[in-house]
Design a protein that fits this description.
- The protein has a four-stranded antiparallel sheet, with no helix packed on it. It has a four-stranded antiparallel sheet with strand order 5-6-10-9, with no helix packed on it. The protein has a four-stranded antiparallel sheet with strand order 8-7-11-12, with no helix packed on it.
- The model has no long low-confidence stretch (mean pLDDT 87).
- Helices cover 27% and strands 36% of the residues.
- It is of the alpha+beta class.
Length: 162
């Protein structure tokens, strides 16, 4: 990349010259560089990640627009974090069922990102969040077959217990 100084002919030049070089303006100076190469097409994984990022961004903007939800996210923010950062992280990483323990008395569901979980259902019936143990609990009435968790973004996470 060449920087052009004190040249009255090239001052302010911009654009492509001969399909080989490009003149640009950077910080008030004329810069000459090679013609940029086009990016290769995006993979399916990249497109999916961009969509996930866009959804998380929209969720975070919506969350901080509501003063009550913004206060909740601000309360969880660490040093240097904003309510937007926390809301975005919740939406982008989402919840995940990390473990299910089935005993004679209860089904215990451990979740990653508990704070973004709206509800947990065991065979279609709601489980209750135990703040002390930080798990979702459901008293066994019959043999449990399926656990579903719903997060604030509307994603559904399922685990079959067969």
């Amino acid at each position: 990349m060449a920087i052009i100084d004190n040249n009255s002919i090239m001052k302010g030049a911009q654009g492509t010259f001969g399909r080989e070089v490009v003149f640009r303006q950077r910080n008030g100076k004329t810069v000459m560089c090679k013609l940029p190469k086009p990016y290769p097409p995006k993979t399916a994984t990249q497109v999916a990640n961009q969509e996930r990022f866009a959804k998380a961004n929209a969720f975070a903007k919506e969350a901080i627009a509501d003063p009550v939800r913004k206060a909740q996210y601000q309360k969880r923010a660490q040093n240097g974090q904003s309510a937007y950062n926390v809301a975005f992280s919740d939406a982008f990483h989402g919840a995940e069922i990390t473990g299910v323990n089935v005993s004679d008395k209860a089904v215990t569901v451990k979740m990653k990102n508990d704070h973004s979980v709206k509800e947990v259902l065991v065979d279609g019936e709601p489980a209750v969040f135990n703040k002390k143990k930080e798990v979702w609990e459901y008293p066994v009435k019959k043999k449990a077959r399926r656990v579903e968790a719903y997060d604030l973004m509307g994603n559904v996470y399922t685990k079959d217990l067969t």
